[in-house]
Amino acid sequence: MDFNDTPEEAAYRAQVRAWLEANAPKRPVGGDDGEGGGSMAASKAWQAKKAAAGYAQITWPKEWGGQGGTPIQQVIFNAEEASYPVPPNPFQIGLGMCVPTVATFADQATKDRFVGPALRGEEIWCQLFSEPSGGSDVAAARTKAVRAPDGSGDWLISGQKVWTTGAQFSDYGIVVCRTNPAAPKHKGLTMFWVDMHDAGIEVKPIHQMSGGSGFNEVFFTDVRVKDSQRLGAVDDGWKVSLVTLMNERLAVGGASGAGWREFLEAARGVAGIDGQPAVKDQALREKLADWYVQAEGLRHTRNRTMTALSRGQTPGPESSIGKIVSAMQMQELGNAALEMLDEYGIVSDPDLAPLHGGFHTSVMFAPGLRIAGGTDEILKNIIAERVLGLPGDIRVDKDVPFKDMPTGR
Amino acid sequence: MNFDFSDDQKFLKAEARRFLDANCPPARVRAVLDDDAKPYDEALWKAVAGQGWLGAAIPEEYGGLGLGRLELCVLAEELGRAVAPIPFASTVYILAEAVMLAGDEAQKAEILPKVAAGELIGALATSEGPGVLTPAALKASVSGGKLTGAKIPVTDGDIAHLALVLAKENGRPGLFLVDLNGPGVTREPLKTLDPTRDAARITFAGAAATRLGPAGEGFALLEQVLDRAAVLIAFEQCGGADRCLEMAKAYALERYAFGRVIASYQAIKHKLADMYVKNELARSNAYYGAWALNTGAPELPLAASAARIAASEAFWFASKENIQTHGGIGFTWEMDCHLYYRRSRQLSLVAGAPRVWKERLVSHLERRNAA
């Protein structure tokens, strides 16, 4: 038991370090708007450089422009890359989820057309799954695709998607649509790729409760797509979406922002209940210990996952616990910091609040993190069903034609 | 990255489980639970000694197997899973580790071979009553090699041969080895929350005491001893917590209510998912503790604290929610749920309650992250 690279991993790390030292920026370039945007030109330039050297998608096969590498090599690259001030990466949803779906289900010409430009960062993709009527229940999608009445075999897509990351700067997207409302919900969906520059597509930013706008609503009005843009068979879109979502699980990240270190630092400079620094308050010390233990537990759970990857194994279910724990901690830790400030805790002005308002940001962003990429409740269902092998929920909508399903608002 | 046990260590773990399935089924634990005159399972103790487990981490020159602490960790996990009613922690994690840490050559040569052979049971005697013991409040004292004072409770105090006792000498705290069968020692068994583990009140009236380690550094040395023990106990707790989750899952899958198995209700599914999350966090922290213990890393105090806190929380949660999942039957004496509930309390309280460890952890963090 140790934290060392195998000889092969060490050699790969050395190779990656040498390349990064010669090619990565030493000072921040472009800037970052905090919502995954920033300077798109800088992001694209860095992506092109990585693609030319085979580092854009290390695990992809060589014919797609990857290295045919292992997941642990990708982990090594990511870790080394993180020590340079590289620009934000708006390509990961496309490369991690959309393009693999296209590559699995599209014809050779389509693959040849899209894989390279996506890899080089020339074209950006988004994933159009969630809808106002279906977040956790993705298969309840209502956005419909019908055959064009002109007999061309084309499809017309109408409806609304929501919480689409990066739609405002995406060139293409994959969209799951209802094609057969008479079939049960999982059996009447079809997947297409679409050109996001189509005149029938309107992208509107969502004003989040946290104040920012990192996501979008996307409206489709009679968007015409060729039948050749279909991914998988008609009404087989659920299976296609499972391929996409399987890749999503590999891309899920945890919470960042203020943690136990920042709390400890802040608690040293704030007066506590008895006039001593708040860090001497016993109740806060116990919470601090709990957060440290949770954070360490997650850090070493990641180390266990990496060990499985290093040994060429599929990571165990332990990797599924990260977001549940970190999102909840972000909310609780942020709130405890605010309470520590007493009345002053309402002041979120970055010029006046500790950590430039970082604890306030945690409190206001954590509700979204507890929902995004699988709510706390869905993730617990996943652990219960896929890890522990408990029965799935009773599905009252399983055999009901979609059009007859009860709906609320 | 190689943050896992080796194939050999996993093989040892599987062998240990097979051995304990055969030699320590719940009926054997209950035999100790139900018989006030039976403080531990002597036959199991002898059998465990025969397997070489007592000397797993003791060097071969002292009669042990000369394996590392990682091997001891996998054995600990299986002993915790089986709620083994033997003085393994007191003897192996605490006494033997303390002697290896601070003993002189004569002490090692005298004590370690006997531990490895199963001829010597150890005990740690620190507490003198309710509350957290501080240097200022410590009453037991040694003068001219004779110990006077009372310790309560002493886990395995009624069956142990040799105690590691915290006492003052010349007004400064030290750790002392005391032969509990010698003159000047009186022991009374105690009724405790977990009758599958022995405990006693021990009164010393001029009992012969030999110092272990340097004079005047009793509390500092005790912390080092407890850091080591905490990691190993954390593995026992992880083993127990995982067993609770298995029991809860098995029962939820066979119990019907309102026309379907209760495992199909989200209230139960989410409860079991919560157990799983806590158990995994505990396991990951315990692994880090194992690494720090095995390599003697300077991170050991923090790693041990985190391991103990996470494992105490996980075992407490799993043991109480296991009973809850079982419903009424879980509250009966006949079901095994309470064996784990009792043991979870025993393991969390001896060697320092979690809140004491949380304070220690934050103190370490403050020093390490000094402004």
> Helices and strands of chain B, in N-to-C order?
HHHHHHEEEEEEEHEEHHHH
Roughly what is the average pLDDT of chain A, rounded to an integer? 91
Strand content of chain B: 15-25%
Order of helices and strands of chain A: HHHHHEEEEEEEEHHHHHH
- According to CATH, the fold-level topology of the largest domain in chain B is Butyryl-CoA Dehydrogenase, subunit A, domain 3
Description:
The complex is a heterodimer of chains A (409) and B (371). In chain A, 40% of the residues lie in helices and 12% in strands. In chain A, a hairpin with a 7-residue loop joins strand 2 and strand 3. In chain A, the strands form two sheets. Chain A has a four-stranded mixed sheet with strand order 1-4-5-8. Chain A starts with 6 loop residues before the first helix and ends in a 22-residue tail after the last helix. The longest helix of chain A has 29 residues, at 282-310. Chain A has three domains: 7-90, no CATH class; 125-250, Butyryl-CoA Dehydrogenase, subunit A, domain 2 (Beta Barrel); 253-372, Butyryl-CoA Dehydrogenase, subunit A, domain 3. With 409 residues, chain A is of the alpha+beta class. Mean pLDDT of chain A is 91; it is low at 33-37. By secondary structure, chain B is of the alpha+beta class. Chain B folds into three domains: 7-119, Butyryl-Coa Dehydrogenase, subunit A, domain 1 (Orthogonal Bundle); 123-216, Butyryl-CoA Dehydrogenase, subunit A, domain 2 (Beta Barrel), CATH 2.40.110.10; 219-368, Butyryl-CoA Dehydrogenase, subunit A, domain 3 (Up-down Bundle), CATH 1.20.140. In chain B, 53% of the residues lie in helices and 15% in strands. Chain B contains eleven helices and nine strands. Chain B has helices at 7-23, 26-33, 42-50, 69-81, 88-102, 105-117, 218-254, 266-295, 300-326, 337-349, 354-368, and strands at residues 122-125, 141-143, 146-155, 162-169, 172-179, 185-189, 199-212, 256-257, 260-261. Chain B has a five-stranded mixed β-barrel with strand order 2-3-7-5-4. In chain B, strands 8-9 form a two-stranded antiparallel sheet. Chain B is globular, with a radius of gyration of 21 Å. The two termini of chain B are 32 Å apart. The model of chain B has no long low-confidence stretch (mean pLDDT 97). The interface between A and B is large, with 56 and 51 residues.
